[in-house]
Structure prediction request, 414 residues.
Amino acid sequence: MPAAPLPLNEAARLAALRRYGILDSESSPAFDALTRLAARLFDVPVAVVSLVDEDRQWFKARVGMDACQTPRDHAFCAWALLEPDILEVLDPLGDPRFADNPLVTGDMRVRYYAGAPLINPDGLVMGTLCLFDTRLRPALSEQQRETLRTLADAVMGELNQHAARLQSDLALSAARDLNTLARERLSGLADSFNTPLTALLGYGQLLYSATHTGSSDPKLETLGRYADAIQSAGKSLLELVNTTLEAMRAHHGSIDQNNAGSVANLHSLLDEVHTLTAPLAEQRGMTMRLSLTSPLWVKGDPVRLKQMVLALVANALKHAGRGVIDLNAHPSDDGRTITLTVSDQGPGLPPAMASLLNPAPLTDPALLAHRGGLTVVRTMAAMQGFGLAVTSTPGIGCMVQINARRHQPELVSA
Prediction:
């Protein structure tokens, strides 16, 4: 009996399967119901949700089969991993891949198999929703194939929901542990951060003084711009650390989410972001462009708003890879809100990545593991009461808009 060849992406596939945390888990009513439905719709004695592990196939749900797993060498589903769509075996006895398979020659007497792949959002096949029969059957009609694909998609959706719940539990546990650690070590944390940051600023000032000598040497001018960026970045980081630590002290481990009295000057904020990121864009052959025609102020924490913009620019630098990154802000027609925009000319944001900026819960374990800066943007937008909008066009680029309430100092002072 020949063993199925390993898929070319086997290492990535197994890693993704493990991230789901589903193997050897307890039975689930949702998986069981979908498996029973498949057996009933296709009138087969055996239906299973099979997840193909390194050396076994494990059944998350099964109808008409006592075993909870079989060796991978016996698995029809191991061959299904190699197919782009449903694998259907109409005559296992006449197929050299399966003719001497124990599932065919043994008590189960398999004479028909159909397996629809369970494909995760990264295109990796975790296993199959598969059907077995002990009698020969005609090939599935196209309508039946579409039904089986739909059921497999529903099973994959349940797998994603399972991963989301698992990640949520892990995140809550980690948050509790971090809060405990923060309360225990907060007193020494400020010095741990402030000392190296203060040194960084000191060395940055020395570099600044050494390069601002009035010389017209272009190398010195370039180093001077870098020195300015180091100073600015160090100050921003020091400001962020101090703000966070003060809030944690005041709220016994909780970051203050009420910043109704804070106001951000968009002109200085965007100018600072532009100064910090323009050299990085230049290194990548890209251009940072800032468009802000008049002074604008918004209601919100300037430190966190700057974090949001920096995260969006960092994402554009990482994924766009070409063209111009635009920073701009403009008031709404009624003058009550300001829209701050970060746009690029890259390949566009994949739908799965765009979901990181949406308020709906995340379900894809790969994204949950690599969510990074985009979920920072989403979380801080919610904390500040900002609106978020994403427009992405494949091959054209991506635009993220932050909508904030406008603050007009001239009206307040009047």
